[in-house]
């Protein structure tokens, strides 16, 4: 019969994420130093700062000198303003009809690409007695999502000229394949962007804030920097793998040294000593081949631990790697801690992070789950409390 050891008491469910705000600031400084003078940083804190906590991260970035923050929409900007963030905030995916007055009141900078958006903002600014409210115009150069078609720019410029309460401060686009070093589409997009800028100049507009680069473009395509860049993932310590001719290029990003900001931890809930031939977890997909000690961890896919890591991922326990075995379930995960000396209930377990030279990071999780680090970080759910370290 298996012997079972169970934790006697836990004040709270012991699964949490630790966010180092000093590391976030360090990454921001690394970015600004890498870019040099003349290139501003719009620090992207959308999607709750990629799962790190938008309010806390925005405050830290503001303290570090960030003059721009990027969010998806009005609902992400409101909590920042409510918590006293005064830094410029760029709404990167526009706005919905009916939000325009709140955007003006909160001094937010919306991205626009349609005539109707410009007209709504101009009327709202007039009603509120605001002149020269700043907007950024986005052009679609090949991403195929948001942005004005280049052929629509003359009409948009005409509407902007008649809008007495708005100021065209910024011009932007988005690069579709910036992590592919030899993608011809990158050069094509940048050429189209330059032609679009020329169209604006021909119609009397020359916005000073020009931006197209995300994290990958910041690292791999210096020609895309312009006067501002929009890094997100790099702030939190990661970048996408780079490719050339369909193959991964190693070491390319080492010129920009950033460190993961978030460490995800749990504790051992229970230990079970199992005989050979014992199935573990849903479907019995893992069967012990010898006497095995299994640690049950109070974390699962409801917390954001990707189910694709089942019998593929690993955790760190007492300065050793321990493989995840069996299927990850909604609330529990099992790991093989056989042979790790001194393992006890309530021992700390690192799901994402480093300890004494051992590392499990979001890039590793992404590779095993056939996804990207963005999704791994954003998926860490709200039921995982964040603990912030200065």
Feature tags:
TIM Barrel, 8-stranded parallel β-sheet, Lyase, Ornithine Decarboxylase, Chain A, domain 1, about 25% strand, single chain, alpha/beta, elongated, about 400 residues, 11 helices, 2 domains
Structural overview:
The protein is of the alpha/beta class and 390 residues long. It has two domains: 3-16 and 261-389, Lyase, Ornithine Decarboxylase, Chain A, domain 1; 20-243, Alpha-Beta Barrel (TIM Barrel), CATH 3.20.20. The chain contains eleven helices and 23 strands. β21 and β22 (358-360) form a beta hairpin. α1 (21-35) crosses α3.
CATH superfamily of the largest domain: Alanine racemase
Average pLDDT, rounded to a whole number, is 95
- Would you identify the regions where 5 or more consecutive residues have pLDDT less than 50? none
Q: Give the helix proportion (percent range).
A: 25-40%
Q: What is the SS-derived class?
A: alpha/beta
CATH architecture of the largest domain: Alpha-Beta Barrel
Alpha-carbon Rg, integer: 24 Å
Topology-level CATH name of the largest domain: TIM Barrel
Number of helices: 11
Q: Main beta sheet: strand number and arrangement?
A: 11 strands, mixed
The CATH top-level class label of the largest domain: Alpha Beta
Taken from the alpha-carbon principal axes, the silhouette is elongated
Distance between the termini: 48 Å
Explain the layout of strands and helices:
Blueprint: E1 3-6, E2 15-20, H1 21-35, E3 40-44, H2 46-51, H3 54-64, E4 68-71, H4 74-82, E5 88-91, H5 100-105, E6 109-112, H6 115-127, E7 133-138, H7 153-162, E8 166-172, H8 184-202, E9 209-211, H9 215-220, E10 228-229, E11 242-244, E12 247-249, E13 262-267, E14 270-274, E15 279-280, E16 286-287, E17 292-297, E18 314-317, E19 320-325, E20 333-336, E21 348-355, E22 358-360, H10 362-369, H11 373-378, E23 386-389
Parallel strand pairs: 2-23, 3-4, 3-10, 4-5, 5-6, 6-7, 7-8, 8-9
Antiparallel strand pairs: 1-14, 2-13, 11-12, 13-21, 14-17, 15-16, 17-20, 18-19, 18-21, 19-20, 21-22
Helix pairs in contact: 1-3
């Amino acid at each position: 019969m298996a012997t079972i050891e169970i934790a006697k008491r836990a004040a709270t469910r012991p699964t949490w994420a630790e966010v180092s705000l000093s590391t976030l600031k360090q990454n921001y400084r690394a970015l600004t130093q890498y870019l040099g003078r003349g290139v501003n940083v719009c620090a992207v804190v959308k999607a709750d700062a990629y799962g790190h906590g938008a309010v806390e991260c925005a405050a830290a970035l503001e303290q570090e000198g960030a003059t721009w923050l990027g969010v998806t929409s009005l609902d992400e900007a409101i909590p920042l303003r409510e918590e006293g963030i005064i830094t410029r905030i760029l709404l990167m995916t526009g706005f919905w009809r009916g939000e325009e007055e709140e955007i003006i009141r909160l001094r937010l900078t919306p991205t626009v690409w349609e005539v109707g958006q410009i007209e709504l903002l101009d009327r709202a600014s007039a009603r509120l007695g605001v002149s020269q409210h700043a907007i950024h115009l986005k052009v679609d150069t090949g991403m195929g999502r948001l942005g004005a078609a280049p052929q629509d720019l003359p009409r948009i410029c005409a509407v902007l000229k008649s809008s007495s309460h708005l100021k065209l401060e910024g011009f932007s686009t988005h690069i579709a394949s910036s992590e592919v070093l030899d993608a011809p589409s990158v050069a094509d997009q940048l050429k189209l962007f330059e032609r679009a800028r020329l169209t604006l100049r021909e119609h009397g507009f020359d916005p000073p804030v020009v931006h197209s680069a995300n994290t990958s473009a910041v690292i791999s395509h210096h020609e895309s920097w312009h006067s501002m860049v929009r890094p997100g993932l790099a702030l939190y310590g990661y970048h996408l793998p780079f490719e050339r001719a369909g193959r991964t290029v190693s070491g390319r990003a080492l010129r920009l040294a950033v460190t993961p900001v978030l460490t995800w931890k749990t504790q051992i809930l229970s230990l079970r000593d199992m005989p050979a031939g014992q199935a573990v977890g849903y479907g019995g997909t893992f069967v012990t081949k010898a006497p095995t000690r299994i640690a049950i961890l109070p974390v699962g896919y409801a917390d954001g631990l990707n189910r694709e890591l089942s019998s593929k991922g690993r955790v760190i326990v007492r300065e050793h790697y321990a493989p995840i075995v069996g299927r990850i379930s909604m609330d529990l995960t099992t790991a093989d801690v056989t042979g790790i000396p001194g393992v006890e209930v309530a021992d700390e377990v690192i799901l994402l992070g480093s300890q004494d030279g051992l590392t499990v990071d979001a890039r590793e999780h992404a590779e095993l789950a056939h996804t990207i680090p963005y999704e791994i970080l954003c998926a860490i759910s709200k039921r995982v409390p964040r603990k912030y370290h200065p």
